[in-house]
Amino acid sequence: MRLPIVSVGNPTLRSAAREISEQELLAPETQRFIDDLIETMRDAGGAGLAANQVDDLRRIAVIEVDRNARYPYKPPIPLTVIVNPRLEPVDEETVAINEGCLSVPDLRGEAERHVSVRVSYLDRHGAAHEELYRGLTAGTFQHEIDHLDGVLFLDRVRDPRTFTTWEQFERFHRDAFVDRARALVARVGS
Predict the structure, then answer these.
(1) pLDDT tens string 72-97
(2) What's the angle, vertex CA 100, arms to CA 128 and CA 39, rounded to 5?
(3) Is the dihedral of CA 88, 134, 122, 3 positive or negative?
(4) Half-sphere exposure of 108 (CA within 13 A, CB side)
(5) What confidence score (pLDDT) does residue 189 get?
(6) What is the C-alpha separation between 40 and 60, in angstroms, rounded?
(7) 144 is catalytic
(8) Which of 110, 112, 144, 170 is catalytic?
(9) Domain coordinates of the chain in residue numbers?
(10) How far is CA 15 from CA 44, 53, 101, in A?
(11) In 37, 46, 105, 127, which residue has its Cα 20 to 30 A from 80's Cα atom?
C-alpha cells in the first residue's frame, strides 16, 4: 500500500526515530510496513525513503537505485532495508552533492557529504550488517540516516545560493553536476 509522504514543516521530519527491537522488527505489522515503505519509494521515484517521511518514528529506511529516471547518474544500489542504522565517517574527506528530497518537493541544493562511510544496521530479517559505502552511494545512505535523526538535506547545504527548483537544475546545473558526479564515481567508485 502506498503511504502518504509528509513534507517539510511536518514535525515528524524533525524528530529522531526510535530504535526497534528484533521482536518488533519481525512482527507481521512491521514487515507489512517495510513492504509499504518500499512500494511508496518506488512509486515516488525516490532513491530512498525513511520512516519519518511517512509520519512514522521507527528507525527504518529503504534504499534502492535501479535505473532511476530522477537520478540516472547514480550508481545502482540493490534494495537495502536498514533498521536501527549507525553511521560513521571513515575519514574527513567531503564532497558537495546536489540533492533533492521527496519530503522537500521541487527543491534541490548542494549538501556537504562524507565521501566514505561505514554503516552498521539490521536487515528486515534481523541479520546484522556492517558495510563500507563510498561516493554517491555514501551520500544516499547519509541522506536517509539523517532523516532518521530528524535532519533534512536543507541543514547540510552550506551555500544557500545552490538552492534551485528541479526545472532550473535541469536547465542550468545538471550537466555540471553530472560531470562532477561521474568524476567522483571514477575516482572512488559508487
Answers:
(1) 788 999 999 999 999 999 999 999 99
(2) 55
(3) positive
(4) 19
(5) 79
(6) 14
(7) yes
(8) 144
(9) 11-188
(10) 22, 11, 17
(11) 105
Provide the angle, in degrees to the nearest 10, between the axes of the packed helices 174-188 and 135-148: 110
Beta strands in 90-190 (DSSP E): 94-101, 104-114, 116-122, 128-134
Of 31, 44, 32, 47, nearest in space to 1 by CA: 32
DSSP 5: P
Kindly state the cell numbers that stand for 142: 547519509
pTM of the complete model: 0.95
Q: Which amino acid is at 145?
A: I
Q: Which residues contact 95 (CB under 8 A, 6 or more apart)?
A: 112, 113, 115, 139, 184
128-140 pLDDT, tens digit each: 999 999 999 999 9
E strand or H helix at 181: helix 174-188
Q: State the average pLDDT for the chain.
A: 95
Residue 57 has pLDDT above 90, yes or no: yes
Answer yes or no: CATH 3.40.50.360 is held by domain 11-188.
no
Cα separation, 158 vs 143, whole angstroms: 15
